[in-house]
Design brief:
The structure is a homodimer. The first copy, chain A, is of the alpha/beta class. Helices cover about 50% and strands about 15% of the residues of chain A. The N and C termini of chain A lie far apart (about 55 Å).
């Protein structure tokens, strides 16, 4: 039997990550605000806790995978939060995407109880979570990172220790810049191709072999061309991440015009009803409306 | 002995492409305005012609690999141009990057002499040219494309027939959108990473494994981090290509804000002496000046 892990947040990503931990032989306690969402993981062998506090009483390592900083703070510091059952030597691994300074504050608060906080945000989306091939960027003490590596390896394939608490989130911010701005590249290339009447499949085949290729163009470009409506990474979540990027940039007086443009274009998609629930590849809709054409006939 | 090929334009790309044709057993006639540049290819077994017209007299297939539309027109239609020795059945493959409409005009002019013109612009840069792994996007008759395939296969690995003459250039324009805008993504991610004090090598290792990766970030990002000054694809050539993209977009009333931003940022690098001779990865210099920092200490 490997160590006991607590897992809070069984959304699209969290559920698959928790299932991978079970598969790799970890004993798992789970908690999710909406209990319905815990069913599949419990059926696979996890024990369910009625509160984060209760979960913390059983687990040496506690993973949080929720949406935003207030959600992380609620499950860790709220009335039924993990902090009320905190024991020295415990480790909290927050895998959500939140601002680096929120990680640092949590880290200080828990340090007073002898509990370490590591940030370990991920990239790779739903498929990476399902296949256990997430990219994981970790901030925290090097020795704690190494101790927790077997847990992280159950969920990801490229796992890098970046630096002190908060540094994982900084790298996640850099990653989101790449993801968001590569969508601009993809949307503009698809738009020009469509408007000149060239077959989009031919285009995709030709250009994925060249210097213009990207993960975004290869995977999400294909989704657009195939009219696959299943959202990859939702726009409203990307916008939350770009808020983190642009507020860091503001603090640093760092002009990031491309990232700002991406946020504007995603906003144009959010202007449609339900637009925020679409995947980031739906940025093409902003171009369709601006350019008065429909690529997806 | 395979067929005889004429090759006009032995610059950085053309020289390597010509050498690959020789290696694959093609008999080669070459012409370059600056004769000095023909030396290496002649030493490798090519015959040199004193003019494009002279070269055309010997070759069934003539490849042009020069900078811009006026250069292509000079070697094909000028006083000593290929047209003066044109013979029915000859094929001209222009592998330069020029506007699609320039290809269509040349195609019509040569059709009157029974000569076919195909456009076959490439992507993959210097390394693709050296290794014979270029992506080649071809516009022209399907049967002519198939007849010329062995020639193209000597220079490239992903070779796609796109459509009628000019269509290869449209796809090249789409490719250049991807290349240029992916540079914005890369420069902004590197800038934020540097300003937050995280090691750039660590960042590159972590993020090339994730959904933010691109050919640009993987290869040119590495060059920036390693302070490798050897230019990849020069900015002044990219600017010429973006002129082609943006003038097509203008004609189509297609708003391409990301591509326009890329052109502005490259212009800021060109504002430095010699900036246009730097590779496109030097876009980072625009961010360094805007943000008042130096990534390359």
């Amino acid at each position: 039997m490997k160590g006991t892990v607590g897992f809070i947040g069984l959304g699209v990503m969290g559920k698959s990550m928790a299932l991978n931990l079970l598969r790799k032989g970890f004993s798992l306690y789970v908690y999710n605000r909406t209990r319905e969402k815990a069913k599949e993981v419990v059926a696979a062998g996890a024990k369910e806790s009625a509160s984060p506090e209760g979960l913390g009483a059983h687990a040496e390592t506690i993973i949080t995978m929720v949406t935003d900083a207030p959600d992380v703070e609620e499950v860790l510091l709220g009335p039924k939060g993990v902090i009320h059952s905190a024991k020295p030597g415990q480790v909290i691994i927050d895998m959500s995407t939140i601002p680096p300074e929120a990680v640092r504050t949590l880290s200080k608060t828990f340090a007073e109880r002898g509990v370490e906080v590591m940030d370990a945000p991920v990239s790779g989306g739903r498929s990476g979570a399902v296949e256990g091939t997430l990219t994981i960027m970790v901030g925290g003490k090097k020795e704690t990172f190494e101790r927790c590596l077997p847990i992280l390896q159950a969920m990801g394939s490229r796992i890098t220790h970046i630096g002190s608490p908060g540094c994982g989130q900084v790298l996640k911010a850099c990653n989101q810049i790449l993801c968001a701005v590569n969508q601009i590249a993809m949307a503009e290339a698809l738009s020009l191709c469509h408007r000149t009447g060239i077959n989009l499949n031919t285009m995709h085949h030709a250009l994925t072999g060249g210097a213009g290729n990207s993960w975004a163009f290869e995977h999400l470009g294909k989704k657009v061309i195939e009219r696959n409506q299943k959202p990859s990474f939702k726009i409203h979540l990307m916008q939350k991440d770009l808020d983190i990027v642009l507020s860091a940039a503001k603090r640093l007086n760092l002009p990031l015009p491309g990232t700002a443009l991406a946020q504007v274009l995603f906003r144009a998609v959010q202007a449609e009803e339900g637009g925020g629930e679409l995947g980031i590849e739906a940025m093409i809709r902003a171009y369709e409306r601006m350019g008065n054409f429909t690529l997806r006939d």
